[in-house]
Amino acid sequence: MIDWILTKDNIFSDQECDELIDLYKPLSKFDKEDIKYYSFLDIDPNKFKYDYKINYLLDEYVKQYPEAGKTTSIWTLTSMRFKHFRPGESFYNWHSENSMTYPHRVLALQIYLSNHNCGTEFSGYNKTIMSVKGRATLFPAYFTHTHKGHICPEKKDRYIITGYVNFVRKGEAE
Questions:
Q1: Cβ contact 147:122 at 8 Å
Q2: Long-range contacts (CB closer than 8 Å, 24 or more residues apart) made by 17-20
Q3: Is-contact 61 136, C-beta < 8 A?
Q4: Chain segment 22-58, per-residue pLDDT in tens
Q5: Which residues of 115-125 are buried (b: 16+ CB within 10 A; e: fewer)?
Q6: Which residues, at least 6 apart from 142, have a Cβ–Cβ distance to it below 8 Å?
């Protein structure tokens, strides 16, 4: 069975991961009213220093899963978010990324910026993508890829960057 999950290691070096944490962590906010699991900072994908690495991942996804390139609408990375999970925190509820609020999401991106003996578990696939510093994962945003994060058993801070590839109108992707 094809799982449609692309995972690539060493997309980001240890130094690049540390640099991203040092850049974004001081600017991240914890909003108990809206986001309960982590502090965060939204990142403009067009200003992300390593956008070429994201483009490489998207190209690799279409190479591995050619059907993804046969959609009738254009899609591109439209949003990114730095997330800092404190010890004992995780997005531990089962969820998918496509919803009434976000109906145009096609793919979800996760970039792991720190090492942990935990990861992202996918229901229905008997698969967990472990949190390995520098690893990136792309997967469909739909209910077929319902997932949840694990709490770090070592009670360490966890850092990831998430992103969403959305369908866009012609001209919006340029």
A1: yes
A2: 17/113, 17/114, 17/133, 17/134, 17/159, 20/82, 20/113, 20/159, 20/161
A3: no
A4: 999 999 987 765 556 788 999 999 999 999 999 999 9
A5: bbebbbbbeeb
A6: 96, 97, 98
* Rg (alpha carbons) of the chain, rounded to whole number: 15
Enumerate domains of the chain plus CATH numbers: 6-168 (2.60.120.620)
Q: How many CB atoms lie within 10 A of CB 137?
A: 23
Give the model confidence (pLDDT) of 103-152 as tens digits.
Answer: 899 999 999 999 999 999 999 899 999 999 999 999 999 999 999 999 99
Q: Is residue 57 a contact partner of residue 11, using CB atoms and an 8 Å limit?
A: yes
Bridge partner list, 136: 8, 111
